[in-house]
Amino acid sequence: MFTMLLTIMTWLYWLSFLLLHCKLIASCVYQFNSSQGKVGNFSSPDFPGKYPDGVECTYRFIGTQSETLRISFSIFELEPPFNDGCLTDYVDISTITVFNVKQLMGRYCGSDIPSPLVSMHPQVEIIFRSNHAAQFRGFHGEYEFKNEKEVPPPTSTPMVQGCGGTVSGVGGVITSPGYPGSFPKDVECVWLIRVEQNMHIYVRILELQLYGSIANCGDAELGLYNGYSNFEFNPEQLKRYCGDLKYYKNMQERTALSPQNRLLIRFLTSRKQDRIGEESMGFKLVWTAVSFKDAGRCNGFVCKYSQFCFNSVSRSCTQTYHYCIDQSLVCDGLPNCSEQDFSDEDKCNIPLVAGCGAAAAVLLLCGVIGTVLYRRHRRIRKSVSQTQNLTMQLRQLECSPSFSTRNSGNYYSSPGDIRPSTDSNCGVHPHYDVIVNNRGRNDPTEV
């Protein structure tokens, strides 16, 4: 009899447990879609009255791929926490990435209003649970969907020139404050690099000289983060740099690629590093907006030796695409393709060399033509000078007295023919005419 009674009590216990459990799972589900409204509010069951006991309510906020979500609470009153934390009545807030990965942002209970939460992911899930011990007023909150391009980076240290901000475009350079000189202490600089959707950001560290070695990260460090992560809740750090660039000998250690179209760069210092000689201090990096396409489908410049692996379950790549960058980045003096790929810069001197060669050829041709013309001009001048001298001599000979007395076929003329005819053209030498006339008048008359 006792055994039967114990069995019945056990069955009743499990039946009540199953009933309660089914009641919890089926309690309430609320869904808020950005297509139906960008802003709105939500609350616990029966608000502003006390929420019921033994409930589990799910609040789903669903936005588009390019949207973020801001959650804030105006009223928050749940059962106080135990020493071990929120174990009875509580609210769990989680984000869901575009890759459908769920990440817990935090668990909250008691009467302290949580700080506003900004999720860079398009979906957020809130789960509210209550037990049977005590009931309270519950919570009331607001939500707002915003395009990710409207979300600024975290706040940087104010009044520090060159410290943080938003950067966009197709590529560029970011340096530490004061570069290449010393950087200040006690600063936090956060840069947001944002490119178009469906593109990624490729970063290469060109120069790095922070305080001490890699063991001094507490004094100065440079961090690269997924631009859709949150510094306060599960920050996704891609790379971390301290000390000198020489500690990162592998080129892959000096580069990073963002999972999506946003990247956060964070520079923290607690000590000032003075410049030593001519050595650059701080950091200098180059970033490039890249997409991954077949060589024939790239509308910009295809990095010849840069490939990205897709759908790789094992170590061997099953599908690869080329890096596609903007055409304006070619020959800009910066390495915009992946490590060991300089195809965007290696042919930049060919036009210059060709131009210099063409200019040299033109100059040489002009020199040859000038030399030929000069020599020809000298020959012409010399020939003209010789001709003029010969003509002068002939004219002098024609106008001489001895030549004027000679007639064709008569070599012995009479004395009356000595004076030249007045029709002779000797005006160019008038002094010969004077001499001849004087001779004619002063000679004695023959008898």
Plain-language structure description:
The C terminus is likely disordered. The protein starts with a helix and ends in a 5-residue tail after the last helix. It is α+β, with helices and mostly antiparallel strands and 447 residues long. 20% of the residues lie in helices and 32% in strands. The strands form four sheets. Strands 11, 13, 16, 18, 19 and 20 form a six-stranded antiparallel sheet that branches. A five-stranded mixed sheet has the order 1-3-8-5-6, with no helix packed on it. The protein has four helices and 20 strands. The longest helix has 50 residues. The radius of gyration is 49 Å and the shape is elongated.
Helix content: 10-25%
Strand content: 25-35%
Q: Pairing-aware structural class of the strands and helices?
A: alpha+beta
What are the secondary-structure elements, in order, as H or E? HEEEEEEEEEEEEEEEEEEEEHHH
Mean pLDDT across every amino acid position: 80
What count of helical segments does DSSP give? Answer: 4
Topology:
Blueprint: H1 2-25, E1 28-33, E2 39-43, E3 56-62, E4 67-77, E5 90-96, E6 102-108, E7 117-119, E8 123-129, E9 138-147, E10 165-168, E11 171-175, E12 187-194, E13 200-209, E14 220-226, E15 237-241, E16 255-257, E17 262-269, E18 282-293, E19 301-310, E20 319-325, H2 349-398, H3 401-404, H4 430-442
Parallel strand pairs: 1-3, 10-12
Antiparallel strand pairs: 2-9, 3-8, 4-7, 4-9, 5-6, 5-8, 11-18, 12-17, 13-16, 13-18, 14-15, 14-17, 18-20, 19-20
